Amino acid sequence: MRDRKLMSDRNYWEKHARNYDASLKWVLGRPLPRMLELASKAVRGKRRVLEVAAGTGIVTSAIAQTSESVVATDYANAMVEALEQRVNDAGLTNVTCEQADIYALPYEDGEFDTVVAANVLHLVPDLSAAIQSLRRVTKPEGVLIAPTFCHDQTKLSWLVSRILAVSGFPGHRRFTLQSLQSKLEENDLTVVNFELLPGLIPIGFVEAVF
User: Fold this and answer.
1) What CATH number did the domain enclosing 78 receive?
2) CA–CA distance, 111 with 30 (Å, rounded to integer)
3) Three-class SS state of 98
4) Whole-angstrom Cα distance, residue 118 to residue 203?
5) Is the N or the C terminus of the chain less surrounded, counting Cβ atoms within 10 Å?
6) Is the pLDDT of residue 2 over 80?
7) How far out from the chain centre does Cα 161 lie?
């Protein structure tokens, strides 16, 4: 069942990769500048960072400025192509772009200091399995940076989320900032920093330690 959902979701992102930047900028973009500021600060000085669900590289471009090296991944081929284009255009020599599935990351145990999972936790069919996969490739007491759209945070975001669902958007859960923190804690992470970033759909910026 999960494999069928993954294939359906992947097809969605393959189809919508070309419109991804525009939809974020013009529709959901209000929280992005603050999110990028916080993400850049959180990875400052980190030696080796893994980014999952990197999409077209909006977050990648920011975190590459303050960390030593970034492995940026996405499971949709069209997203990886756009990601590589953005990285090349920006001349980012410390970023490696790869296609990878969040549930089956092709990396060694404890390979990374920090994992950035921006706006993906509400999209994965099996959240616990995704977190365990991220835990495996992160050093003990490594950091998870997980800014996440909180679809149930306000009445307006609740309404916008339902409209998106009708359009085929492949969401699997709707968070508030509080429920996002709770879900991470249920999966044995310790939340060390959080901030709610207002927007049409607010973003809950959360840092947690494995």
Assistant:
1) 3.40.50.150
2) 34
3) strand
4) 10
5) N
6) no
7) 18
